[in-house]
Design a protein that fits this description.
The structure holds two protein chains of two kinds.
Chain A (H helix, E strand, L loop, with lengths): L5 H32 L6 H11 L5 H26 L10 H29 L7 H8 L2 H28 L6 H31 L10
Helix pairs in contact in A: 1-3, 1-6, 3-4, 4-6, 5-7, 6-7
Chain B lengths: L4 E8 L8 E8 L6 H10 L27 E4 L2 E4 L12 E4 L6 E3 L2 E2 L2 H9 L20 H11 L6 H4 L4 E2 L2 E2 L3 H12 L7 H9 L13 H4 L6 H21 L3
Parallel strand pairs in B: 1-5
Antiparallel strand pairs in B: 1-2, 3-4, 3-5, 6-7, 8-9
The chains are: A mainly alpha, B alpha+beta.
The structure holds protoporphyrin IX containing FE, iron/sulfur cluster and FE2/S2 (inorganic) cluster.
Amino acid sequence: MSAATAESKTSYILDKLQSLSGVIPIGAYLLDHLWSNSYALVSIEKYNQVSGDLQTVPWRIALEAAVLWIPILFHSLYGFYIWSKGKSNALSHPWMSNWMYLLQRWTGLIAFVFIGWHLYTERFGGHGVTRYAGVAEDMANPLYVAAYIIGVVACSFHLGNGLWNFACKWGIAITPKAQRAAGWFGALVGVSCTLAGIVIVLGFHYAWFPLGGYVQ
Amino acid sequence: MAEKTFIVRIKRQQRADESVRWEEYELRYRPHMNVIICLRDIAERPFTRGGVESTPVSYDANCLEEVCGACAMLINGTARQACTALVDDLEKPIRLEPLTKFPLIRDLVVDRSKMFEDLKRTHCWIPIDGTYNIGEGPRMAPAVQEKGYPLARCITCGNCLEVCPKVNSNDSFVGAAIVSQVRLFNMHPTGAMHSAERLDALMGPGGIAECDNAQNCVKACPKGIPLTESLAAVNGQVLVHAVKSWLRGE
Ligand code: HEM
Ligand code: SF4
Ligand code: FES
């Protein structure tokens, strides 16, 4: 047998790109996004300054398309395709990693719906340039708060469990011990993102600035 | 004194395209029975619980000591070897079904040639001769032997494929056993001379990228083979091989 034909390698490359895109850029962006939104926990002025800077970067549309929209669309649509090729059996084989396999898919779906709605309400609809007051107005609505918490939990779980998957699937964590360590690392990332996200949402809801201690 | 008995329920099908029929047998209990003994008892006296005469149940078995792999089936819903499934340990009634991920031949017998075909497709053997004697190969370091031995215990039973969400009629994934054999043969000093062919094959359709890490395989393997370790190790090998061939424009 000679080298695999170009055509037969396509699915390998697409699978690998789907996997990679989950970490870079999408996962990295999720961390960055939680970071920049954490300024809402410092002060209104700081938040408006940081988000204003972010929303006036040069080549904004091209940058967003290249780093966010295209990777997220590719990761999601190809993710749905991967999902469709598997047949989950977590009910008949209820092992923890098997539930994780199923949850990775459902949290992906929730993330997809959430991101679509989040883009519609915060990016394209209404404000154009987001300011603290605009977000706080949305977050006054308890339904928004609930939707954001669900979205944040789903995205955080999906990233945390995804990092574990990634470590196994790229041959980074090979032995069971290393895979367990990667699992704990993923859990740490997932729990941290969940907590940060929830605190930010509650910060907007209650006009609460727990990290504003240094602001005079 | 009444004899102690227990019930075995068996999913039977004459052919894959025939309708399913469940039969119940009441068997005389003896200590230390395994599931193969149950099937032999039925073959001896194929009368269902209702007293209706049936036919002996078709099943595969050979070694009766968990080394040939032939007797894999679903026992109370769990993919495992019938010869090491002891009646004493099983919940009654005992439910027997054929594996679902392989084409059914009859009753509990399935056709597992997919695994053999995939072993061939992935070059899972070591060529020791060409058209002439190619001489002795390099020696294998004891440390490598020690790593290889557990992988060499695979009995091609197919339990790891049975429990894998990505092995099904929608997907051509070769499954954990084959990937683990690629690792074994790539580890072998003579086998390593052909590692590129194995890695290329695993880059193709049904190859390693199909693995989505549900990690069921390792829990179902009767031989305790570290399948998730093999999958991760071979994933790394394929990746390095892919990047290198790409950089070299191969
Ligand atoms: C917040 C946005 C998202 C992030 C940060 C993210 C991140 C990740 C990461 C890190 C992985 C692991 C890569 C791997 O399996 O090797 C992954 C896998 C996956 N993602 Fe996402 N993802 C996001 C959105 C989505 C969406 C919207 C879907 C749509 C269903 C999706 C579907 C999947 C699937 C099916 C896998 C598993 C692939 C596999 O096991 O091979 N993801 N994701
Ligand atoms: S790896 Fe284990 S479960 Fe899979 S075929 Fe080999 S022995 Fe059976
Ligand atoms: S008869 Fe050989 S493994 Fe059971």
